[in-house]
Amino acid sequence: MWLQRLLSGAWPLTFILGLAVVPLQVRGLNNGLALTPPMGWLHWERFLCETDCQKEPWRCISEQLFMQMADMMVFQGWLDAGYQYLCIDDCWLAPERDANNRLQADPIRFPGGIKKLADYVHDRGLLLGIYQDVGKKTCAGFPGSKDFYELDAQTFADWGVDLLKFDGCYYGTLDELEDGYRRMSVALNRTGRNIVLSCEWPLYARPLTKVNYTEVAEYCNSWRNFADVSDSWSSVKAILDWTAILQNSLVPAAGPGAWNDPDMLVIGNFGLSWDQQVTQMALWCIMAAPLLMSNDLRDISAESKALLQNKEVIAINQDPLGAQGYRILTRWKKDSNFELWEKPLSAISLAVSITNRMEQGGPRRIEFSTTMLWKGTVCKKKCYITQLLPTRQEYGYLNITAKLPLWVNPTGTILLRID
Ligand code: GLA
């Protein structure tokens, strides 16, 4: 798809040639799904594996939690903003399979079973995601899918599941890991139901082998590369740095139907300052990441909600070109505490983020110029600059010789759209 668009003349040739990290070929899992990064809600980071509904009725992993989240997604504008997948993570299962080896939800916490929950979710226009594992057990120790890939794929399809997050704990050997992912992907396709497959294959395979992203993208709609996100700036920073260091292999793998997954958005929780929440949102959009929030939609500040629901920012993430953004080398090496990323958009536009990585002092000024962009060739004579974050502001046309002073808070980000 990338290649077709590039060759269709939608891009100036200088721009194409200047971009060493632009993918020349993307072959995503051929199920026609996730043509833009999946958006939704996933329980893990915020709710973990709380199974005691007596003591923790408000936050235990139960059908009630998901029904409440489904209602919030519809009535609080999340679905309208694009967040469609309501996803269950680990700890939904009963400790054993049933007499026919079929998976079953914990009967106390999910008395209606997953089918009933799927109906509830679908009735509201949402889609349901579920979690399983390629190995003998899930990471939290519940029954895994090993030896039951076909049966489990069929069970999920029968229940009306729309997305499977497929983890890699207890995988056995590398061959078993890779084979398990292939088999589950094929089995899901064979059910005939549209089920997005979200993998963790590269995360588990990386210590043992060089990850073949072409192959991963043939079997998965998205895949995790790094450790779990936590509710902290150090975690968000680490994910950004990892992604930037490996961008030459990660960026070409991404495209419609196939996404690198830097893990959940933790905006609206406890650990990130306002500026750090802006940074996570801006950079997850630049990275064309799945936007899967893990927060409590029943209790979220108006600011975090507005940030997560910002339609123009989401549009950067959901741009149909499906290009993953990348960190651009600075031409202002004397000041390496600013970090710039750019993401090509359709219609010959760019999204650009400017992060102040200094963790001391106050707002710092950067004299932004379009010549800082990759090879500086996207704007022929002048570009129209719109700031989308932290607040919306139109700066109008900027000549390529002109400089725009911008002030960025410590650990904060300015997100620009350049047309
Ligand atoms: C792994 C995954 C997490 C989460 C937990 C659940 O750590 O990477 O995202 O799914 O397992 O146990």
From TrEMBL:
<dbReference type="GO" id="GO:0005576">
    <property type="term" value="C:extracellular region"/>
</dbReference>
<dbReference type="GO" id="GO:0004557">
    <property type="term" value="F:alpha-galactosidase activity"/>
</dbReference>
<dbReference type="InterPro" id="IPR000111">
    <property type="entry name" value="Glyco_hydro_27/36_CS"/>
</dbReference>
<dbReference type="InterPro" id="IPR013780">
    <property type="entry name" value="Glyco_hydro_b"/>
</dbReference>
<dbReference type="InterPro" id="IPR013785">
    <property type="entry name" value="Aldolase_TIM"/>
</dbReference>
<dbReference type="InterPro" id="IPR017853">
    <property type="entry name" value="GH"/>
</dbReference>
<keyword id="KW-1015">Disulfide bond</keyword>
<dbReference type="InterPro" id="IPR002241">
    <property type="entry name" value="Glyco_hydro_27"/>
</dbReference>
<dbReference type="GO" id="GO:0046479">
    <property type="term" value="P:glycosphingolipid catabolic process"/>
</dbReference>
<comment type="subunit">
    <text>Homodimer.</text>
</comment>
<dbReference type="Pfam" id="PF16499">
    <property type="entry name" value="Melibiase_2"/>
</dbReference>
<dbReference type="InterPro" id="IPR035373">
    <property type="entry name" value="Melibiase/NAGA_C"/>
</dbReference>
<keyword id="KW-0378">Hydrolase</keyword>
<keyword id="KW-0443">Lipid metabolism</keyword>
<comment type="similarity">
    <text>Belongs to the glycosyl hydrolase 27 family.</text>
</comment>
<dbReference type="GO" id="GO:0016139">
    <property type="term" value="P:glycoside catabolic process"/>
</dbReference>
<keyword id="KW-0458">Lysosome</keyword>
<keyword id="KW-0732">Signal</keyword>
<dbReference type="GO" id="GO:0005764">
    <property type="term" value="C:lysosome"/>
</dbReference>
<keyword id="KW-0325">Glycoprotein</keyword>
<feature type="domain" description="Alpha galactosidase A C-terminal">
    <location>
        <begin position="322"/>
        <end position="412"/>
    </location>
</feature>
<keyword id="KW-0326">Glycosidase</keyword>
<dbReference type="GO" id="GO:0016020">
    <property type="term" value="C:membrane"/>
</dbReference>
<dbReference type="Pfam" id="PF17450">
    <property type="entry name" value="Melibiase_2_C"/>
</dbReference>
<comment type="function">
    <text>Catalyzes the hydrolysis of glycosphingolipids and participates in their degradation in the lysosome.</text>
</comment>
<protein>
    <recommendedName>
        <fullName>Alpha-galactosidase</fullName>
        <ecNumber>3.2.1.-</ecNumber>
    </recommendedName>
</protein>
<dbReference type="GO" id="GO:0009311">
    <property type="term" value="P:oligosaccharide metabolic process"/>
</dbReference>
